[in-house]
Amino acid sequence: METFASLMRDYEQSGLGVAARSTTWLYPLANLIHVLGAALLVGAIAVFDIQVLRREGSLRALARATLPVAILGLVIQLVSGLILLSAEASTIVDNGAFRFKMLMLLLGLINVVVFHWRFGHFLQKEATPDMARPFAAISLGSWVLVLLAGRAIAYA
């Protein structure tokens, strides 16, 4: 664990961390972009998951429309999140809300991979099996919790 703490201290003292703390624009811009990424990611996932939960119609066109938006949102989130983390990495990693957010992020990502591995071929068919519904519910819940935990970081 000490190695991880040391790694976080080094990351905080990196050029990126110094820039995030010392410039007047980098941290606020990264924060704004992080919110945009969250809107794209969770918005696209929510649209898809709600349709899976409704069990109506084909998901093929919807998946083609939402998956690229979700991927773009995830990339934006990761890049901007790393900038935000660099500003205070040594303390933020001990924040309970941050840890919960990372746990829910991991759950959401694993759920997406398992869903597409297990049910991806159904995206080509008319109906999605009932077994896909719990995955959609877990997905929707985990991504909403990522948002809520992210907001709670400032208050924890």
Task: Describe the model.
This is DUF2214 domain-containing protein. It comes from Microvirga brassicacearum. The chain has 156 residues and is mainly α. It has one domain. The protein is 79% helix and 0% strand. It has seven helices and no strands. Helix 2 crosses helix 4 and helix 3 runs antiparallel to helix 4. The chain is elongated, with a radius of gyration of 18 Å. The protein starts with a helix and ends with a helix.
**How much of the polypeptide forms β-strand, as a percent range?**
under 5%
Please provide the ordered H/E string of secondary-structure elements.
HHHHHHH
Overall residue-averaged pLDDT value? 93
Shape: elongated
* Number of separate helices: 7
Q: Regions with pLDDT < 50 over 5+ consecutive residues?
A: none
Number of domains: 1
Distance between the termini: 21 Å
| Main beta-sheet strand count, sense and barrel state | none
Radius of gyration, whole Å:
18 Å
Helix vs. strand class:
mainly alpha
Determine the fraction of residues in helical runs and give it as a percent range: over 70%
| DSSP summary, beta strand count | 0
Secondary-structure map:
Blueprint: H1 2-12, H2 15-22, H3 26-54, H4 60-87, H5 89-92, H6 96-119, H7 133-152
Helix pairs in contact: 2-4, 3-4, 3-7, 6-7
Keywords: Membrane, Transmembrane, Transmembrane helix
Transmembrane segments: 32-53, 65-85, 97-115, 135-154
Protein name: DUF2214 domain-containing protein
